[in-house]
Amino acid sequence: MFGLVVRFTCEDQASAEAFDRLVAATVGKIRDNEPGTLVYAVNRVEGEPLQRVFYELYRDRAAFEAHEAQEHTKKFLDEREQYLSATEVDWLTLQTGKGTAG
């Protein structure tokens, strides 16, 4: 398995609302068209109204690369920056856990 956690910080409340709309338009397409994307969870951060945390888990590196090649993902990547003041990415290597092969 291959995964990452991304923390996005939006510029302001209006940007956060626009970012959330962009995310909503993207997630349904990921759900419907990406069998190798095992988990794509978008979270708000309690007490931090401008932050969003994505947890993404893919079957393997090839599934992640297929995700990145999708038109809906490219659109998200192209449009997201206008709403953000910061992006932090942590790449994950599965060690062990419930509901995993590890």
Automatic annotation (TrEMBL):
InterPro entries: ABM_dom, AI-2_Isomerase_LsrG, Dimeric_a/b-barrel. It holds the Pfam family ABM. Gene3D superfamilies: 3.30.70.100. PROSITE patterns: ABM. SUPFAM superfamilies: Dimeric alpha+beta barrel. This is ABM domain-containing protein. Residues 2-94 form the ABM domain.
